[in-house]
Amino acid sequence: MPKKSITVEVNPDILKWAIGSSGWNEQEISKKLKLSSNIFDSWLKGETNPTLRQLEDLAKTVKRPLAVFFLSEPPKEKPLPKDYRMLPEKEGKFDKKTILAIRRARRLQKISKELSENLNTNLNKLVSAVKQSEDPKKTAEKYRAEFKFDEVTQKKLKTPYEVFNFLRDTIEDKNIIVFQIFMPIEDARGFTLVDDSPAVVVVNSKDQIEARIFTLMHEFGHVLLNESGVSMPESTIFLKNQDPIEKWCDGFASAFLLPETLAKAEFSQNKDVAKLSRAYKVSKAMLFYNMYRLNFISKQQYDAFIDKYKPEILKPKEKAEKKGGFRSTADKQCLSERGQKFVSLVVNNVDKGFITHSDALGYLSIKAKNLDKVMSKAKK
Question: Of 78, 173, 189, 261, whose CB is crowded by the most CB atoms within 10 A?
Answer without folding.
Answer: 189
